[in-house]
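so my prof wants the structure for this chain in the tokens format not the other one, which i didnt know existed until like an hour ago. anyway here's the sequence
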Amino acid sequence: MSKKTIQLIVIFFLSISLVIIGNTTYASAEVNDDRIADGVYIDEVDVSQMTKDEAAIAVDNFIQNLQHKEIIITVGEKSARTTLGDMGYSYNLNDSLDEAYAIGRVGNLIKRYKEIKDIEQANKVFPLEFTMDDAKLKEFIAKEIGAFNIEPVNASLKRKNGQFVYTDHIVGSKVNVDLTSDTIMNIILYNWDRTDINVQAFMEEDMPKYTRKDVEKVNSILGSFSTEYKSSAEGRAANLANGAKLINNAVIYPDEVFSGYEYLTPFTPANGYYSAGAYAGGKVIDSIGGGACQVTTTLYNAVLFAELEVVERAAHSMTISYADLGRDAAIAGTYKDLKFMNSTDYPILIEAYTKGRRITFNIWGYDERSNNRKIKFETIVKSETKPPADVVTEDPTQPTTYRKVTQSAHTGYKAELYKIVYEDGVEVSRTLVNKSTYMPAPRYVTIGTMEVEKEPEEEPIKKPKDENTEPTQEDDIIDNSEKQDEQLEQDLYWDPSWEDEGYEDE
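here's what i got, hopefully its the right format
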């Protein structure tokens, strides 16, 4: 190789070295301070010539702006709004800030040079990792969009003129929370244009639990019972008729609990009630709604024969005349109520009516019991307590001949009611239904204490009488005096029904 050729090669390599050293010096000059190189972005934020702290603040301001964007979920013409911030929208820088700052600073001279030259051709963008609180979003959808749900309506039925009248079920609609939430999350995390988010909620049909087909299976009387009230006053009779009307055609779906208190109250004239006898503090008083206990007692017996689950039942404080011991169900205030559950698989209908001073309850349903199965109920008296001594009240405004029994005596009892099941005429089970206690109560009597002066009576003049003549006025006087004791007895205020125990109900 000639000397001239060697010189040219040396000059070439020196030139190349000078170019590389010059460019490297330029590259170093571009990032030799604490600022990020030009053309560097974190997501949409241009962090060129920012320090790391300035870049972090700029990114945070960008996220805060996004957190104010709205999520608008629409159902028909209705909508609900929230913000991304309220739904827990946030971010994670991870290593993006460090990587942005490292451009042109890390690696050998050629790597750093290449990074600087690449940015001149196209910006370098470092991504952010975004997060949303999925639980918060679902809670918002369930509450706010769920308010737009249309509840389904079960099919129903009633008795009219001895026939069933059916009402079709109504299909509702409800929000699909998961599908609506997933749609919003996918938009935000993967396909968002950084404007307010508008989505249609995903609604789906909500079928009622019981359809027309189910209620049409209600075709049998599961249990029936009647009681009489022939001797009741008009007010009490009216209350029984009113109670039957208030309960009639009640439909109870499976697992639902019937409450006599909820159907019968309030006991006010505005609700159709009159004043009648009721128990209070061991005495019979007049009360608005008196007689309601005969309504619940009659229904209770129908429930027993329907073999439904009794949730709550209370005996009367004293005995009653229209049902056997253990077969009664009192209602008083909120502390005594008749509650039972529809423990069958199908709806039941309660039919109630009064006719000829007789109240009747029929419980209709789908009877799946065997035809060879029969039930009856038996009361066993465990103890009996005689009434205490009469309670006598003196009334100085009434004559000494006055005597009035204001309340009859009541014998106390402790009794147990048993359900007996027969199959093919053979007893197969005997189950305790309830235990009842009835307290004894004295007879309450009011007597007069006012002395009344008697006028002296003239001696009657006796005259011989002709056997063939009509009786004279004097004869009438003699006859009347002979009946003086009978007349005195008639003057006493006495009602034979007071001798009967438990005339009125509680």
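also thought this was worth mentioning. Residues 6-43+98-127 form one domain.
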